[in-house]
Each structure stands twice: as C-alpha cells, then as structure tokens.
Specification:
Layout lengths: L1 H17 L15 H11 L1 E6 L4 H18 L3 E6 L5 H6 L2 E5 L5 H7 L5 E3 L4 E4 L2 E4 L3 E9 L7 E6 L3 H12 L5 H4 L4 E5 L2 E9 L5 E9 L5 E6 L2 E5 L6 H22 L9 E6 L2 H8 L5 E3 L5 E5 L2 H4 L5 H11 L5 H10 L9 H10 L6 H5 L1 H5 L3 H5 L1
Parallel strand pairs: 1-2, 1-3, 3-8, 13-14, 14-16
Antiparallel strand pairs: 4-5, 5-6, 7-8, 7-9, 9-10, 10-11, 12-13, 15-16
C-alpha cells in the first residue's frame, strides 16, 4: 500500500506536468501518512529547491542540477532558492527539497537533527537505519517524508559532502531522461560511486520507521564469473548460471571480432566493460531503475542485462552498441548504429537480422534512405524498422 501511495503521488505530478534561521522542531512523531503528504504537495503546486550556496562552485553545480530537475516536475513548479535566501514563512508553507552539504547548508543541518538520515560531523559519517556510512564516499537521499517545519507537507533531501557528488550521481542515472527522477524515488536511498546500494521505504503507519519488509541492500558488488579482453562478466545473487554466463561472454567476444573484421579497425587500449548480470527484471529494476532486458548505463561504461531463459531467444542488441561505440565512436546516425548492432546480434527476435530485413523487403516496408538518415523521422518508425 505504501508503494501504491507513492506511485499515485508521483503519477499525479506526471499528470500535472502533462496538462533563514534554524528552527526548534516538535519532537512528536508525525501522524501524516504518505497519501496525505502527496495530496498536499500536489495541491500546493510548488516545491522549494533549497540549495547549498556556501561557495560559488557549489552554488553553480547545484543551480545547474536544479534546472535539469525542473523537467522531472513539468508544470509543477520547482523554485530554486539559495539557502541564505530562504524565509521562515516559506519553509512552513511549501514542500521542500534540501540539496547540498550537511556541513554548510543551515536548513539541511537543522533538518537532519530530526530526520532518519543523520550527519555525525566528528566522525564524518552519515547514519541511517542503524548503519553508518563514510560521508566522503556516500550520497544520501530521502523522499516524501514529513517536513520538520510542517509535517503535513513532504521534505526531500539530497546530501553529500561535495555538491559534485550529488550532481554526478544523478547525471549518471538521468542524463538521457530526467522525467524518470520522480518515478525512481524510494523513501530512503544510499549511493556510492554513482550506484544505488541501499534503498527502502518507511512505514507511515508505525511512526515512519524504516520498514524491514521494504528494505534492499545491494552493497555487495557481485561476483566476477569470467572475463575476456572486452568485458568483465559480474553476476549478482541468483544469476550464477556459470555455463550460461560463459556462453554470453563467448558471444560478446565473437561479436567484437566480427566487428573488427567488418570495419577493418582494431580495438586499442580498450577498457573492458563491466557487464552486470541479474536474475530477473525485478532485481535489475531495483538495482538500476531500468526493467528492460538490457541497457547501457548513462555513462556508457557498463552493460546491465537480465540472464534468464525467456530472453535467450530474444537477444538484445544493446551490448553490441557498446562495442561499436568503443571501436568506431558514437554514430551521428541512429539507424546506422542500431542496424549494425542488430546485425551482430545472432538471436535478435529469435531469427536474427537477415531474416527480419528479408521480411521487411518482401513486404515492401524497407524505409527510404531519406527516412533512415533523418534521426527524428527514424525514431518515429516502428521498433522493428528502427532496430533492423
């Protein structure tokens, strides 16, 4: 039910997009539930993004981040306000997003004394749910939690010692689609080196304590099963079918060799990809926020793929896009890049590239060269045409 409330709240925001001084806070446990927080936030129509402005660099980084986040909220207003310009009345009147360093942001410092995420300055650690995290390595997030200034409205928190850590972490996840930001949120999240390692929900019916039934810890780095010159194949829990993983690795190496033969080029000083393998779309989605069978991360340095029987005859072309970009660079033509990747994908839609191109040709559905070279028109074509 908690997750349903969260989904309904953020769905409402998506629908909408389509159409000073420290305070002594009350010690009482908030009685507001998540559904009420979401409704009240929606009715306000505005959220204050209070950013750390303690030095020009932090201010610039967080201002740029705020501008990007505006697209996640659409016509729901995200108002960017420096921490030094925040008014007490506004803190009580509006939902808040506190962004910056716990060492320099006055409203964030005050709030963390009352929120589940705490900052321990002497130890330089964050504390959450009975665990401590080295503040120099981790970024912490809190979403849709009762605000210390007004517990009928929500507060969001994004904090790390350096503003660049916050910005780079979010960039690595949302560079290509900032609208996903709201949909991906959990009650609390812990990130390190751009990866979401811990996430969970609060039980709003039990004093807003972390719910042990909705807590996920992905801090294990997975197990490297095999490696070759092109990738390290790393399996997470439940994805340890070594024979299947070795088969995936062999196909990847064969495709790399085939690509070199086709292009007449060779990989030089290649940094092998981290090729992560998951037991299910659900576990992949929880770890990465993507439930597709396979995707490349926003930085282009890692491949994430589900390895289960149902996908074996519907092999994704995404890993081969990674190879193409490493050898030839990113093509200005979407059609050329996706077509070449599909050509290298032996079991694309079971039958492979040659079969489906022949079907398109027999049905007189092969697009014109003009359409193929126009990225905007090409993206509007069917998925079969786009990929072949």
């Amino acid at each position: 039910m908690k997750l349903l409330y969260l989904c309904l709240t953020f769905a409402g925001l998506q629908l909408l997009s389509s159409c000073g001084a420290q305070t002594a806070f009350p010690a009482d446990v908030p009685a507001t539930d998540r559904h009420t927080l979401g409704r009240n936030m929606w009715e306000k129509g505005k959220l204050l993004y209070l950013y750390d402005s303690h030095n020009p660099h932090s201010q610039q980084v967080l201002l740029e981040l705020g501008e990007k986040l505006k697209s996640a909220f659409g016509r729901f207003e995200l108002q960017l306000v420096a921490d030094t310009a925040a008014r007490e009345a506004d803190l009580r009147q509006y939902p808040l997003m506190l962004v910056g360093s716990p060492e320099h942001h006055p409203q964030l410092q005050a709030a963390l004394q009352q929120l589940p995420i705490n900052f321990l300055p002497q130890q330089q650690q964050f504390a959450l749910a009975g665990r401590s995290y080295d503040a120099s390595r981790y970024m912490m997030m809190l979403s849709m939690y009762p605000s210390p200034w007004n517990d009928s409205l929500p507060v969001f928190v994004m904090t790390a010692l350096e503003a660049a850590t916050i910005s780079s972490t979010l960039e690595s996840h949302y560079r290509d689609n900032w609208r996903r930001f709201l949909r991906d949120r959990w009650g609390y999240e812990v990130y390190a080196e751009g990866k979401r390692l811990v996430m969970g929900e609060f039980d709003d019916g039990a004093g807003w304590k972390p719910d042990p039934q909705a807590h996920y810890d992905f801090s294990d780095g997975g197990r490297q099963v095999v490696h070759n010159p092109y990738a390290r194949f790393i399996a997470f829990e439940g994805a340890g079918n070594e024979a299947a993983i070795r088969q995936v690795a062999a196909r990847f190496e064969q495709a790399a060799q085939q690509l070199q033969a086709l292009s007449g080029s060779s990989f030089e000083q290649l940094q092998p990809a981290d090729y992560y393998l998951y037991a299910s779309t659900e576990m992949k989605g929880l770890r990465t926020g993507h439930t597709d069978e396979c995707h490349l991360d926003a930085n282009g340095q890692a491949i994430h793929r589900v390895i289960i029987d149902e996908f074996e005859e519907h092999e994704s072309e995404q890993p081969y896009i990674w190879l193409i970009r490493q050898l030839l660079g990113k093509s200005p033509s979407v059609a050329m890049e996706s077509g070449l990747a599909t050509y290298l994908t032996r079991h694309w839609h079971k039958k492979g590239y040659a079969y489906w191109v022949a079907r398109l040709n027999d049905g007189h559905n092969v697009p014109s060269p003009a359409l193929l070279m126009d990225n905007n028109r090409f993206e509007a074509a069917s998925s079969l045409v786009r990929t072949c």
